[in-house]
Design a protein that fits this description.
Pfam families: adh_short. This is NAD(P)-binding protein. InterPro entries: NAD(P)-bd_dom_sf, SDR_fam, Sec_Metab_Biosynth_Oxidored. The chain is of the alpha/beta class. It has a single domain (4-334), classed as Rossmann fold. It has helices at 4-12, 30-42, 56-64, 86-99, 127-152, 189-214, 242-255, 259-271, 319-334; strands at 21-25, 48-53, 75-80, 105-108, 158-162, 219-223, 228-229, 257-258, 276-280, 286-290, 306-307, 310-311. A hairpin with a 2-residue loop joins strand 11 and strand 12 (310-311). The radius of gyration is 19 Å and the shape is globular. The N and C termini lie far apart (43 Å). Bound molecules: NADP nicotinamide-adenine-dinucleotide phosphate. NADP nicotinamide-adenine-dinucleotide phosphate binds next to helix 2.
């Protein structure tokens, strides 16, 4: 487990011969904000940094405090997007493709968690899954050609999702009969929310495994941030269970780490690992990883926590699960 001092030292030693292009989806708050700030320090501001979110005021405040080099060749900007709708995400990705020719780092920290609000979006998607999973799929799918362009220039080409890595187990396979969490009955807010929250981690494992298997030169990382003091942290039970929320939030306050500290570990994870699939813990340590020598079509194996015949600790999908989840994601995000 690398200490905070070690990861900070490692992060500031990052030295690229070019000005990197980095996109931070969810960079207006929490872990994402901390990562934007730590990344900007590592490159002394010499990068094209694109922050994606809804809160333009927060973004302007963050951007105003980033280091600004004297030389040209850098840009720090905000682009607005409500990522709960996939049509918005696709439009925003087209906007980004018109702005830049390559992306070196694509970081997605967008989050949503509620024990009581279990809406369906106007596009017919479960709100939790839209914000925790589907938008990640669409961002990566639509921006992958730019990350591939960075790879073809022999530059850093890395994609990182901060969500819930390492939670998979052979005892908890993804429910392939309730893909999207809209098939089974949706009575009972808490149960439905919990199903989506658990599913989003397995779906993200599956999605990143799919892209890693198809793009052996690029690094795809799913990482768990631990408990972090941010707006997303905590429980929001209502009614008779409100005191339970108070208690949980009181306890979490003492065990949570500041977003700046978490962000250094997340950045360490982003900079480490050249290619393949990585599942990492809150310190940035590898829980499991797999490199592919050439593009691979995954098969029909139903074994959870096994990827292309290799056992993967904490990996929440199976090869057939990857195929089914990608088919499902393509169908429900394309028709919007
Ligand atoms: N904090 C924790 O203890 C913890 C624990 C486990 C996992 N995680 C996961 O870690 C990730 C980061 O969490 P965090 O605590 O840093 O979250 P956070 O502080 O609440 O930040 C969430 C980010 O998502 C963006 N976002 C939310 N809804 C959006 C929408 N509809 N459209 C566009 N952007 C939206 C927000 O931007 P705008 O407000 O500008 O829209 C914000 O930048 C999340 O995936 C979370 O599930 C966190």
């Amino acid at each position: 487990m690398p200490t905070l001092a070690i990861v900070k030292k490692f992060n500031v030693s990052f030295d690229a011969s070019y000005a990197p292009v980095a996109v931070f989806v969810g960079g207006t708050s929490g872990v994402g904000q901390g990562m934007v700030e730590a990344f900007a320090r590592s490159v002394h501001g010499r990068a094209h940094i694109i922050i994606v979110g809804r809160n333009g005021y927060a973004a302007a405040d963050i951007i105003a405090r980033l280091p600004r080099p004297d030389e040209d060749g850098w840009k720090h900007e905000f682009v607005s997007c409500d990522a709960s709708l996939m049509a918005n995400v696709r439009a925003l990705c087209a906007e980004i493709r018109a702005k830049v020719k390559r992306i070196n780092f694509l970081v997605i920290t967008t989050g949503y968690s509620s024990m009581v609000n279990i809406g369906i979006t106007s596009e017919g998607l479960d709100l939790h899954l839209a914000l925790r999973y589907y938008q990640r799929y669409v961002f990566i799918h639509e921006l992958l050609p730019l990350v591939q362009a960075a790879h073809s220039l022999s530059e850093d080409s890395k994609i990182l999702c901060v969500l819930g890595a390492g939670r998979g187990s052979p005892k908890r396979p993804i429910d392939l009969n309730n893909l999207g969490n809209t098939v089974n009955p949706r009575a009972g807010g808490f149960t439905v929310a919990l199903r989506s929250m658990i599913a989003s981690s397995g779906y993200t494992d599956a999605m990143l495994a799919h892209f890693a298997a198809q793009n052996p030169g690029i690094a795809f990382t799913h990482i768990h941030p631990g408990v972090v003091r941010t707006p997303t942290m905590g429980a929001d039970f209502s009614g008779l269970l409100t005191p339970v929320s108070w208690l949980i939030n009181f306890i979490l306050h003492f065990i949570a780490v500041p977003q700046e500290e978490c962000a250094e570990h997340m950045l360490y994870a982003l900079f480490n690992g050249e290619r393949g699939l990585f599942l990492r813990d809150r310190y940035g340590d590898v829980v499991s990883a797999l490199e592919f020598e050439a593009p691979v079509e995954l098969g029909e194996s139903v074994e959870t926590s096994v990827l292309n015949g290799v056992p993967m600790k904490g990996y929440g999908a199976s090869d057939i699960g990857v195929r089914r989840i990608i088919e499902h994601s393509e169908t429900v995000t394309r028709t919007k």
